[in-house]
Amino acid sequence: MNRIGILALTMAAAAMPAAAQQRVDETKPAAKDGAVEVHNVAGSVRVTGWDQDQVAVTGTLGRGTERLEFTAGERRTVVRVVLPHNAHHVDGSDLEIKVPRGSSLEVNTVSADISADKVSGETVLESVSGEITVGGEPKRFTARTVSGDVDITAASAPGQAKSVSGTVKLNGVTGDVEAGSVSGDISVKGDAISHVDLETTSGDIRLDAGLAKDGRVTAKTVSGTVELVLPAATSADFDVTTFSGHITNAFGPEAKRTSEYGPGKELSFSTGTGGRIVARSFSGNVHLRKK
Fold first, then answer.
1. Maximum C-alpha span of the chain
2. Which phi and psi (to 5°) does residue 100 adopt?
3. What is the pTM of this model?
4. What CA–CA distances, in Å, run from 275 to 97, 210, 272, 290?
5. 158, 134 in Cβ contact below 8 A?
6. DSSP letter string over 63-128?
7. Helices (H) and strands (E) in the chain — how many of each?
8. Cα dihedral sign, 85-88-89-92
9. How far apart are CA 101 and CA 159, in angstroms?
10. 180 burial type by CB count under 10 A (0-12 exposed, 13-18 middle, 19+ buried)
11. How many Cα neighbours within 13 Å face the side chain of 155?
12. Could you give the C-alpha distances from 117 to 22, 100, 266, in angstroms and in order?
């Protein structure tokens, strides 16, 4: 091979890393209360609300990615990372997206982590193995992942958070809240919760919250511990059972055995009218504590 051919090959090889990744920096007009939809396979998606009627996308498309599809209609904006058919060895894409604060938001990924903050519309985030983080004050949140963790800090936002093998944490929530996991722990902190439904199979459940008038709490686990930390002035009917664990109660009477022949224990009492609190564990302990 002559010197010109060698030089051409050398220059092509040097250019490959630069072509391997694509920088994106695009902006399109959007309705201040429209819908924004985001799709990414791997990498990360970070969405932040701002006070402009525009959707701005910056970041890096991973090696092997075909292109970024970015379309904006009158009421809906779509951001999609497009991969080649039968794609192999495609690197993850990292996207930073700014959306009008009043947008409703839907994000779907496979292994990409998702973060959303300062978005006041309804927020729906779903991933297979990515972690999900939500902040700000969405109208309502839905966060689902299979093997990732879920961390919600969303003041005044009712919603649902679920993971199969990850932990689920909700902080500063009020209203109606539902959290579930199969093999992960669930932790909830909030104030004036009107209806909370917590369920896991082999994880622990911890609730530290106030109860709204006529509020409802249901906490169930198969092999974990249930710990409910409530204000001393909580007014509710309590219904607590465990098959092979112990029950401790800071609000009054001691638990009784469900049968003289078995290890199960139960506790039923009232501190006033209005609320209802149900706690169940098959092989774990249940603790009722005062703040």
1. 94
2. -55, 140
3. 0.89
4. 42, 11, 8, 16
5. no
6. TT--EEEEEE-SSEEEEEEE--TT--SPPPEEEEEEEETT-EEEEEESS-EEEEES--S-EEEE-S
7. 1, 24
8. positive
9. 19
10. buried
11. 2
12. 26, 11, 42
Place of tokens 């109208």: 139
95 is written with which tokens? 């996207």
What letter does residue 52 receive in the DSSP assignment?
S
The label of the residue with tokens 């958070």 reads 161
Residues 6+ apart with CB under 8 A from 120: 49, 101, 102, 136, 137, 138, 139
Cα distances from 142 to residues 108, 139, 153, 179, 211, in angstroms, run 12, 10, 13, 10, 22
Q: What is the per-residue pLDDT across 108-162, written as a single tens digit (0 to 9) for each? A: 999 999 999 999 999 999 999 999 999 999 999 999 999 999 999 987 888 999 9
Residue spans of the domains in the chain: they are 21-118
* Amino acid (1-letter code) at residue 184: G
